[in-house]
Amino acid sequence: MSLAPTSPRPPRDVLLGASGRLARGRRAGRRRFLRLLRTASVVAALAALLVWLTSSDARIAAPPRISVVVRLPRVAVAGPATAASLTPALPWPKTGQSAVDVPAVGFSAQSGPERPVPVASMTKVMTAYVVLHDHPLSLGAQGPSVTMSVADASQFGLDTVTDQANVVLKAGEVLTEYQMLEGLLVHSANDLAYALACWDAGSLPAFVAKMNATAASLGMRATHFADASGFSASSVSTASDLLKVAAAAMTDPVFAQIVSMSAVSLPLAGVVASYTPLVGTTGVVGIKSGFTSAAGGGDLLAYRTSVDGHSVLSLAAVTSQEGWTVLEVAGKEALALARAASAGVQVETMAQKGAVVAQVVAGRRAVDVTTASPAQLLALPGDRVRQLVRIRAPRGAAKKGTRLGTATFVLGGQDVSVPVRLAARVP
After folding, report:
1. Of the CATH numbers 3.40.109.10, 3.10.580.10, 3.40.710.10, 3.30.565.10, which one belongs to the domain with range 83-343?
2. 400 is an active site residue
């Protein structure tokens, strides 16, 4: 049995007929029309955007660059006198060397050319400064306890027979560091200078080496120490050099506290008075006198007064004074110098509240940066004040009153900073 051959399937177009072909063509046409319409719409939109961007109504721009411009005026203190004119007018002693210093305003002056001379017990200021550097104390603390050795007691005996200032010391006696410094600075005890030196450095020569190294670090170029007490005529310095260690020592609250005392009480010695004659009188807050036959009379004096509610410390040093009451003579000369130097100090306003110190520039707009409070400094007429502005520019929009940094005013030992803020909004 044979099968008849199968006929091939006719094309779709043949099956649909003429009407089917016509419907398919219409659908394809609509799809092409819609594609063309969408393309035309996109082209038209882009063309309109291009026209707008190139017209005067376009408002698209990059964010403005924000920067800071400092606008600090130079500050000079006005007044009838200047620091330079004040120097020759000071009441310099007729004999010896003298110098004066007002640390806060950076003023210092000396009577004339200087040469190293014996400075007697003013040496003990360096002794105390080195001890406190190596064994610092806080206010109210007594510090380590130190047992007096046989050598310490022997030094007391030697000082007694050689007419050196001393306090009673016995082997085995226990004194605190603070008590030893009291006896050293107030009653000028040479035996305690020796005891402190050996306790600190192990031996007197080792301690003296520390003293001279410290003097060099403070810029005391005309100074050389041979002992810790100043009894040796080989311990020499100048008036202006002595003020350098005095200014450094007075920044230590414990040192400043001790030298302001007119008397102290020690375990065996009892109450002992200060050899610095004017301590305790109005304004005199220290520091140290000194006398030997080689040195004559000398005085390192600290004087504190108030100017418009601001405390002012003046330091004066005199050497090689003479007279029957030589320490009183030296003290009065030093006090006259300190008073005269501080009399020229005044309080100056470096910047009022709201003073413009900089501007923040954002595009074409500049916004002032102003001080949030006034800034005041102690100054002498003619002083130049160093000014620093530290500002961080805002990264974007910032409100009025935003703190951006500080304005700092520097003169001598003073450093006064006030906050600075935006005076208006930064867009």
Report:
1. 3.40.710.10
2. no
